[in-house]
Amino acid sequence: MKNNIVLGVIGADCHAVGNRILDYAFTEAGFEVINIGVLSSQEDFINAAIETNARAILVSSLYGHGEIDCRGLREKCEEAGLKDILLYAGGNLVVGKQDWESVEKRFKDMGFNRVYAPGTTPQMGIRDLKEDLKIV
Amino acid sequence: MKNNIVLGVIGADCHAVGNRILDYAFTEAGFEVINIGVLSSQEDFINAAIETNARAILVSSLYGHGEIDCRGLREKCEEAGLKDILLYAGGNLVVGKQDWESVEKRFKDMGFNRVYAPGTTPQMGIRDLKEDLKIV
Amino acid sequence: MELKNKKWTEAEFNKVREEVLTHWPTGKDVDLQEAAQFLKGIPEHKNFAAKLRKAKQEGITLAQPRAGVALVDEHIKLLQHLQNEGEADFLPCTIDSYTRQNRYNECQVGIEESIKTNRSMLNGFPAVNHGVHNCRKVLAAVETPLQARHGTPDSRLLAEIIHAGGWTSNEGGGISYNIPYAKSVSVERSLLDWQYCDRLAGLYEEMGIEINREPFGPLTGTLVPPSMSNAVAIIEGLLAAEQGVKSLTLGYGQCGNLVQDVAAIRSLIELSEEYFKTYGYKVDLTTVFHQWMGGFPADESKAFGVISWGAATAALAGATKVIVKTPHEAVGIPTMEANAQGIKATKQTLNLLKGQRLQMSKELELEIKLIKAETKCILDKVLELGKGDFAIGTVKAFEAGVIDVPFAPSKYNVGKMLPARDNNGAVRYLEFGNIPMTKEIKDFNKQLLEERAKSEGRQVSFQMVVDDIYAVGKGTLVGKPEK
Amino acid sequence: MELKNKKWTEAEFNKVREEVLTHWPTGKDVDLQEAAQFLKGIPEHKNFAAKLRKAKQEGITLAQPRAGVALVDEHIKLLQHLQNEGEADFLPCTIDSYTRQNRYNECQVGIEESIKTNRSMLNGFPAVNHGVHNCRKVLAAVETPLQARHGTPDSRLLAEIIHAGGWTSNEGGGISYNIPYAKSVSVERSLLDWQYCDRLAGLYEEMGIEINREPFGPLTGTLVPPSMSNAVAIIEGLLAAEQGVKSLTLGYGQCGNLVQDVAAIRSLIELSEEYFKTYGYKVDLTTVFHQWMGGFPADESKAFGVISWGAATAALAGATKVIVKTPHEAVGIPTMEANAQGIKATKQTLNLLKGQRLQMSKELELEIKLIKAETKCILDKVLELGKGDFAIGTVKAFEAGVIDVPFAPSKYNVGKMLPARDNNGAVRYLEFGNIPMTKEIKDFNKQLLEERAKSEGRQVSFQMVVDDIYAVGKGTLVGKPEK
């Protein structure tokens, strides 16, 4: 089974640099990256995941609106039949400098499997994804 | 009556720049400044005050040892017959960034009439001294 | 309407305007005559163009933060803090990202949620939703000029509202607020929409009101070679001037090598003035230098080092204005206290350097010459593609990859060009893609990057670019291979 | 013993040494042979001279804070924080002011009170009282070289103890640790006492152990014209070299004008190497740049601006080492956290500027020439007064006011010279007193200050100097008249 993953930047966010680097790093690490780019809606992520039979959706948000933009994504995935898909989120997820643990909790409560603080390296996400997908 | 004042830097302290400026500023303001310079002992201050019949002693301390160096100055002044002489202290009086109010209180408890925080302008001291000496 | 670099007629403008003002209910409150009256009553110290001109005459550099929150009163509190505690010379109103995509309904959600949760759920001030009246309320509460800073491909309604609201400057341009900020807005579309914004500023100028316009210099803010950002700045400047803009601030984002950064500002001034002269535009030209736009160190003390070095470079370059970062940069939108701290570190540095300039050296002269030559290669081709029309030429130049912005999200950007730093930290072209340059220039760029690769014991590659992107956040300018 | 610039004989040294080691009980624990064995066992990364040489070869600038507290364990905790959190390249042991006056009894009081009150009652580490064993304990606890930094006219016992304690560098000199730090120590006395310290370092060198010596460049740290501090640095360097010192770090304190600061470091290197060559000394020369030594702004963000600009200047000048200030500077001795913050801002700036130098310009060339010419005027006269002997000449030069340090507390300093800034912030001579300079140089200095006075609408006067002293603390470099 191929390890397809959907990568994108959610909402009205147009930060493209990190997206390029994540694409590069996850591809190098052996994943098949379906990169839907910046300014992507929840529907864009879900459609791409269905079309490519992806095992994980990696959501970036750099502009602070992540909390609004990510709400309901888990529920919509389930409605669309993506029952066990992994949801990761990372970037600058909220406006301002907030206590990281409470941010992480809010996103986990929303149904995200992994949540990453600002400044996390791609390698961290790659390691986790391999672990979660049981890839040695 | 001439307004003689004794100016100096107490203890093992050799900061000479502020001393020069205070000399200049108090002289400009009409005081007769007896400047005993840096590295002056309590005795140097008292002797100069007796010799010149001074009305105030202005003690500078920039190096953080002010608390040790100034202890007992009021008592020694009284022993030497300088009953009502004004004692002012200013500079970086203690080691490190401490709560200013507690520093001020410790020096006032030692018998200082006025205590100045780091960064006070000479003009502030001149105004206070004129007030304390009732010079219009 | 067909795109060409030609001043819009009154009829053309009014026809579009009628429609633009219907995009959101607040549009109906904009009355150009009433706004002109209001703007005439604004004291000079609150006019952006006037304050910039004064700074240019005095040879000083002024500081401006970025800042904006969802609610009017909170926004005023924020700006007052930056003014009183931070001693900002200019104040911004950073516009939220939904407004930038004209998604005013979502702004409304953000405003309501912000009221409910008692914290800003938007990353900026939704000026269109708040309308003219509230923009004026913000202006009345501060003592510096105001500018909208955003990233909006279609800023027409926003421009109408902020200028009528007394904000005397608008940042952006048809290239610089499209290519780095949008995925699927055509260059033709955004150039037209920004001609509207420029024409609006021009109309105010014709009514005797100075409105400053500032194309967004740094583009994607990531390893953009100075000649590429300068080419875009000059095109946007020329297009604005054609529509009647008189006060223009051209920008550049710090790359990090002092000689290159100073050369970028100097060549930007010299070359754009040359073009303005050639095309007969009378423009009051000033410059803005953006402190480091890339990744920041998370440590606040280290961030202060990056901020202060940006301020020093701005002063040594002789920029009229510097855009300030904050010690919270690495973690997202700063608190107002952190924002004020960034301004204070900047202003202290600017004051220490007042009057000091980087003196002319052999190296600076060479770098100015190089940037100018590279910029000319691009601009000559744009003009050729447009058969003498910079607007048409720009559309074609993007199609052809003659203008190519690194790491841009837009699908209208070819994205074949790849930049990297040389051994001294100057940004060079690693891959030119379709950017037309002379062989001499290409060889020179290549040689510099091969020198670096050699000294690092590796091949010139994309990994070098990735290392450069992370480098400042990790504390250095040039990204070295992991040991 | 009669002062002359001549290497002490073994007999001369040993005679004095016998007495020196009796000044305080800890002196008896110093055994030169045992110490040499101990020093030979210290790994290279903890040797000051070796680390400096490596930095010089790599063309990088290393950072060193100031720090010292009364008690050994607290001092270790402080240094470890500066090393681990601050990433300091070199660690200091700043010595307290009682030790500097050889008042070891009062140190003892300070140590005891510090234990009682649980806070440091001394402004530094009383190394003589703590003795050789404790100095070694400090060295064992850190991973960088250690240096004593103080201001001690008679540092003989201190030097014995710290070097035996494994600290491989000692700051100071017969002029630079007397004139700015004492009131009534004769120049002759302190030159002799520092010949002792230099000879001690020389003895270690002869036993194959590298010991670095660093004359204190900034002197009073207040508007010292570069030519005056360079003249003193070169004299102290020559006197040290004569006693066998091989690793020498000459210093300079930031004045604030970039061109002048860079010119000061460049001319210091070039001129001192010229003199070393003339007199046949083989010296491993490095330089140290002191971040702004004058009044600081109380606001910590503004202090970061001052600190970072000092770091940038050090890098652009190509200094081997930079001495770091802290954001607490305005209020006195910093917490260890604030101290680490200063280092981090500095190191970030140094890393960003790695490899970047201020390029040669007409202005830089002129300034280097001017500083060299001024310095030569002083040194030529010193040599003339000393009939070819720099030590004797120095004593006579102070008597005559040929060397004259502004704002110095020493009664052996004539104090007729007065400095002030010109319009660009460069420090110039306002009054020369008895300093011998050519008419051309005098006229040039005068002209620059009159230009400033004119632009400020006032006369050249002492008030200008006062304004300059307060200026940086108030946010600017040049002190303007109050409005």
UniProtKB/TrEMBL annotation, chains A, B:
Domain B12-binding residue range list: 2-136
Catalytic activity annotation: (2S,3S)-3-methyl-L-aspartate = L-glutamate
EC numbers: 5.4.99.1
Primary enzyme class: isomerase
Pfam family, one: B12-binding
Chain segments annotated as transmembrane: none
Cofactor(s) needed: adenosylcob(III)alamin
SUPFAM superfamilies: Cobalamin (vitamin B12)-binding domain (SSF52242)
Pathway: Amino-acid degradation; L-glutamate degradation via mesaconate pathway; acetate and pyruvate from L-glutamate: step 1/4
Binding-site residues for adenosylcob(III)alamin, renumbered to this chain: 12-16, 60-62, 92-96
Source organism, top-level taxon: Bacteria
Entry keyword set: Cobalamin, Cobalt, Isomerase, Metal-binding
GO biological process entries: anaerobic L-glutamate catabolic process; L-glutamate catabolic process via L-citramalate
Molecular function terms from GO: cobalamin binding; metal ion binding; methylaspartate mutase activity
Gene3D superfamilies linked: Cobalamin-binding domain (3.40.50.280)
HAMAP family per the UniProt record, alphabetical: Me_Asp_mutase_S
Record's function text: Catalyzes the carbon skeleton rearrangement of L-glutamate to L-threo-3-methylaspartate ((2S,3S)-3-methylaspartate).
Stated family: Belongs to the methylaspartate mutase GlmS subunit family.
Subunit record text: Heterotetramer composed of 2 epsilon subunits (GlmE) and 2 sigma subunits (GlmS). GlmE exists as a homodimer and GlmS as a monomer.
Name this polypeptide is given: Glutamate mutase sigma subunit
Organism annotation: Proteiniborus ethanoligenes
Higher taxonomy: Bacteria, Bacillati, Bacillota, Clostridia, Eubacteriales
Automatic annotation (TrEMBL), chains C, D:
EC number(s) stated in the UniProt entry for this protein: 5.4.99.1
Coiled coil spans: none
UniProt entry tagged with the keyword Isomerase: yes
GO BP of this protein: anaerobic L-glutamate catabolic process; L-glutamate catabolic process via L-citramalate
InterPro entries found in the cross-reference section: Cbl-dep_enz_cat, Glu_mut_E, Glu_mut_E_C_dom_sf
Record text on subunit structure and interactions: Heterotetramer composed of 2 epsilon subunits (GlmE) and 2 sigma subunits (GlmS). GlmE exists as a homodimer and GlmS as a monomer.
Protein name from the UniProt record: Glutamate mutase epsilon subunit
